[in-house]
Predict the structure of N-acetylglucosaminyl deacetylase, LmbE family.
Amino acid sequence: MNVLAVGAHPDDVEILCAGTLARYRRTGHAVGICVLTNGDLGAPDGEKVEIAAVRAREARRSADVLDARLFLLGEPDGFLFDSPETRIAFAEVLRAFRPDILFIPDPHDYHPDHRAASAIALNSLQLAASPLQRTESAAIESLPAVFYMDTLALVGATPRRWVDISETLDTKLDMLRAHRSQNDWLRCTDGTDYLDYVVKQARLRGLQCGTAAAEAFRVPEYFPINHAASTLPELPA
């Protein structure tokens, strides 16, 4: 299968579903990561062009851990909107990668860019399937199974699906280590090490489903009914 995860900023995908992506990759599935903004607000000071370049390099190093295909759409950080232009740009990503499974941000997450990314991803599906909407690649033949990723700090909607990442948590952390600029910034501004942060979240989600570590997801409710659950890696019996 082709498995695509979408984040508003470099490192969003790694925080919320890298362990699950690693499980897919270990069993031979192709993995893609799409980052919608350039992350150029992700520093306490400096030139935005240079910050965006750093974050793009970090995103590539992280994707290389999984040999994942990386799509960088380059929208300005903090100004991501569900516009015709962003829908068409993401529809082309869908057509180029042709995912069977699509992980997208939760529509109720804390950051406006996260919420916009969720809307863009979901609202581009029919566009990507329409032969009359022209992009560089041909229309997709079928829609992927869609999952909402978890929210930061587990705030908000209750998940309905869990994936055991006990054996891939280290890979998730390796991917996050590639985003060094962000961890340095968070340590200075918030006193937070986000490696520690994601381990705590993974342990709490693991506690809920009886594993050492887990990531959690929800399935969007829309017509036609999304029979996505069977495509997730299974929990231990």
Q: What stands out?
A: The chain has one domain: 2-223.
